[in-house]
């Protein structure tokens, strides 16, 4: 797809690396100015900001924030206004992902997983809504196919993503008609950096994916771009999973 985002500004949380960086590059290539949020990945954020600005000067900026901090949503919106004077697209991509078996769940696990995957997106959306309404903008939340079909061993994460799916649909009602709200639900896209899923489990996952292969961060970025440019689509969650969710 070649729909232009020229003149528009996007905020991508967790935008410095992996899927977030692919989304940022895709939106930038379509003409958008991009604000890259990061927490710990400063070197990656600096590198990506420089890369994008080398293509189009003053078209990328970065902002560091701990999304669980109460001040974070306001700080992100201030950074968007200061950097580009507007906001047209919010992509809630930042996420914590790790297993916790039932019987070992502690409040800290709940706070981290619910906080990063549900609470932070809620309050960022709330803070961004007035800015997005000014530009008839949109929100794209990165959900997960396991919001609908829980992943064994990942109960709290699955609950969090299920909440994000409900938030996506709820905000589509609450913010209409001025702001569209949609989601993308990835399947097997990029294995976690910390070695979760051993080789046998990875092979099993691919064997239960109808297309028989992993996707790529670029596939998620393409879906985000589509939803950013689809003026009559709201309240939808698009699975980008090689068909795996129909097999689970």
Question: What is the strand and helix layout of this fold?
Answer:
Blueprint: E1 9-12, H1 18-29, E2 33-38, H2 42-55, E3 60-64, H3 72-84, E4 89-92, H4 107-135, E5 138-142, H5 155-174, E6 180-186, H6 199-207, H7 217-228, E7 237-240
Parallel strand pairs: 1-2, 1-4, 2-3, 4-5, 5-6, 6-7
Helix pairs in contact: 1-7, 3-4, 4-5
Describe this structure in words.
This protein is an alpha/beta fold and about 250 residues long. Helix content is about 45%, strand content about 15%. It has seven helices and seven strands, in the order E-H-E-H-E-H-E-H-E-H-E-H-H-E. The protein has helices spanning about 20-30, 40-55, 70-85, 105-135, 155-175, 200-205, 215-230; strands at about 10, 35-40, 60-65, 90, 140, 180-185, 235-240. Strand 5, helix 5 and strand 6 (about 180-185) form a beta-alpha-beta unit. The protein is globular. It starts with 8 loop residues before the first strand and ends in an 8-residue tail after the last strand. About 45% of the residues are buried.
